[in-house]
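chain below, 469 aa
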Amino acid sequence: MTTSSSSPSVPFPAPAPLLPGTERALLHRVARAQSEGRTPSLVGAVARDGAVVWSGGRAAEGTPVPDADTQYRIGSITKPFTGVLVMRLRDEGLLDLADPLEKHLPGTGVGEVTVAQLLAHSSGLAAESPAPWWERTPGTLRPELDDVLGDAPVLHPAGRRFHYSNTGYTLLGSLVAAVRGTSWEDALRAEILEPLGLLRTGVRPSAPHADGWAVHPWADVLLPEPAQDLGIMAPAGQLWSTVGDLCRFALFLAEGDDRVLRAETVREMRAPAVPAPEGEWDGAYGLGLQIERVAGRTLVGHGGSLPGFLAGLRFSVVDGVAAAVLTNATSGPQPGAVAADLLGIVADAEPRIPAPWQPLPAVDQELLALTGPWYWGTYAYGLAVVADGGVELRPLRGTGRAARFRAEPGGTWTGLDDYFTGETLRVVRAPDGRVSHLDVGSFVFTREPYEQGDAVPGGVDADGWRGQP
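prediction:
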């Protein structure tokens, strides 16, 4: 049940085609989701190597079959867009993620809740606005933030737990508007949609688009769902989009784009900021993005729903594959799970071909001299040089804290992974200029295990190594 139009599709670059067997497996998964999910229509798309490589849709007989250019409401997939706008403000120095919201948006009554906590759903704010149900009623019923927050907006201590909050993202949208001095919608269009070429994404539908339906749980009959303008709550779930545009957006979230956000910043958004409640889903939440483990893969993205519509977006940075699924039913299919399946079909059947090994264009001889084995106590590590003057420190056997480090001006390196994220690696020299040891966040790495005369914290027994005591 879609509304047709002759409006032109946004052209995609011509990527290498998928294998016929892969395409059939993708179509089969989409067809099964539409049939088993009892939904009027469903469309999916997959992107890799910077472009959409496949899309396919299914629809009830007599209904236009959707394609990569057909719009659906995407509900809470709007939240990553709002998150990107907030991160842009941070990168421009207009706010800090640790800032209390009230510093930039006074009078909300939410106390010391920070920008980061709002992004990560750890603010402790209520999940929803006061009745009536905001997703099915016009935003004119809630014209001001006070109407969205109600009399008791804070339910939990800030920063203590994950509690999904649509009201929190409403506040973030108002924050963007206050700091930018323009509307959230105008900021979205100028700062994300136009630079990334997401021309089929917006706050209102533009044909061809799907109509929203409810499917009776016990009979194959339909009821139209209202498509309300959410007003001030738009930053939490207003947008319409297509699977083509969502795949492009996912590629941006995986790789970055200096016109919108640097690769370093989108990597920050993808990192877990707070865990989800136990038993809800196997993953965590970043800064505007869901993170989950599916079939051994780390997938990032978001889900979305509004009355009449369900949406799912997933991408794997390691595999270089993204998938989006959209459907026009209030319940039934599980677009997030279907998107994960589409991604897995492509990644398993046609795994990414590694880039050719390439020697570095030049090498710093002092840096090269630092490579090789180092010891933290008796744990053996190896230091290797990587691109752009960075280094990698990994255990040589067993388990240990592995990390990549980015080169910084002045001859230090900053950790990029796990335990050492943000920690500084520096070279410490003896008075005669020779390298004494490496210091990684106060951890001392020496060339020999517990080397006599070196800077081993706590010292080394004067009698040194010995046989059986």
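Residues 222 and 297 are 37 Å apart (CA to CA). The chain has a mean pLDDT of 93.
thats it, cya
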